[in-house]
């Protein structure tokens, strides 16, 4: 493993954390030359994901410092490799969580690269050449074209950026649960943050009855009036939870803090499915009785493959689904991370990397 190789000749300005203090500071580093399968992207915007917060503070014990976070990246292509036929200079594109995979396993060959056991991520990963990957908190990115998607022309680049992680993270389990082609289901969304608010928008666009489950009574108005949710359950309210028992077909749990799945499972109908997409840093509680007595299933889901990610972007273009964002400048990243740790954002911070207006 090396931070750089002799092929890393392009000097790039970015922002990195150097220790578990999590403090982000300006950082100059080198990226590889644009290879035959690569595209070079001028980064316009980059969303701040909860995963970024975990990585800069080394909450999961896997951070390789210095770490340049960011995997919700939108930008414009400035260079294409000789083997690249599906992109051209000037294209509006996005890069999400994936930077490389083996390309040979059953998952890579079935467009489920995100489940390849050799998957490497856009930052804090090890690329094919042995170098450490650096993410979108930077002015320029070189990416293999197989891990790049198009951004529909009608979507603003800033509000589309978080779709590359938050969007695909909730779209994939919805597709897996047949929610795209069979409207009229009762869908529950646990948590109304970066993932949850996009999930509400998608589920409504796909024609479902949507119930938001939250610990915050203050979010009911925005869930219903701003995002279009049909119902709202305060998870700490015993009466509301009792009334909601056995009413939902599918629940997406987007919460990234430790919590028990038991009360949430009780909201599912018999044969219902709970999909966990949040990533708490401590184990979540899973009591057996709600599983057994309701013949319920609990499963996980992580982002999506590249074909599915492009499909998600196209669907968002068709339904005009974007994220509700707060745009910040790079010198506000530390403040944004601190506010994110307190859930003080509606609903996603996006860094204006290029200092431009919307494209």
TrEMBL record:
<dbReference type="GO" id="GO:0009809">
    <property type="term" value="P:lignin biosynthetic process"/>
</dbReference>
<keyword id="KW-0560">Oxidoreductase</keyword>
<dbReference type="InterPro" id="IPR011032">
    <property type="entry name" value="GroES-like_sf"/>
</dbReference>
<comment type="subunit">
    <text>Homodimer.</text>
</comment>
<comment type="pathway">
    <text>Aromatic compound metabolism; phenylpropanoid biosynthesis.</text>
</comment>
<dbReference type="InterPro" id="IPR013154">
    <property type="entry name" value="ADH-like_N"/>
</dbReference>
<dbReference type="InterPro" id="IPR020843">
    <property type="entry name" value="ER"/>
</dbReference>
<dbReference type="InterPro" id="IPR013149">
    <property type="entry name" value="ADH-like_C"/>
</dbReference>
<feature type="domain" description="Enoyl reductase (ER)">
    <location>
        <begin position="17"/>
        <end position="351"/>
    </location>
</feature>
<dbReference type="InterPro" id="IPR002328">
    <property type="entry name" value="ADH_Zn_CS"/>
</dbReference>
<protein>
    <recommendedName>
        <fullName>cinnamyl-alcohol dehydrogenase</fullName>
        <ecNumber>1.1.1.195</ecNumber>
    </recommendedName>
</protein>
<keyword id="KW-0521">NADP</keyword>
<comment type="similarity">
    <text>Belongs to the zinc-containing alcohol dehydrogenase family.</text>
</comment>
<keyword id="KW-0862">Zinc</keyword>
<dbReference type="Pfam" id="PF08240">
    <property type="entry name" value="ADH_N"/>
</dbReference>
<dbReference type="GO" id="GO:0045551">
    <property type="term" value="F:cinnamyl-alcohol dehydrogenase activity"/>
</dbReference>
<dbReference type="GO" id="GO:0008270">
    <property type="term" value="F:zinc ion binding"/>
</dbReference>
<dbReference type="Pfam" id="PF00107">
    <property type="entry name" value="ADH_zinc_N"/>
</dbReference>
<dbReference type="InterPro" id="IPR036291">
    <property type="entry name" value="NAD(P)-bd_dom_sf"/>
</dbReference>
<keyword id="KW-0438">Lignin biosynthesis</keyword>
<dbReference type="InterPro" id="IPR047109">
    <property type="entry name" value="CAD-like"/>
</dbReference>
<keyword id="KW-0479">Metal-binding</keyword>
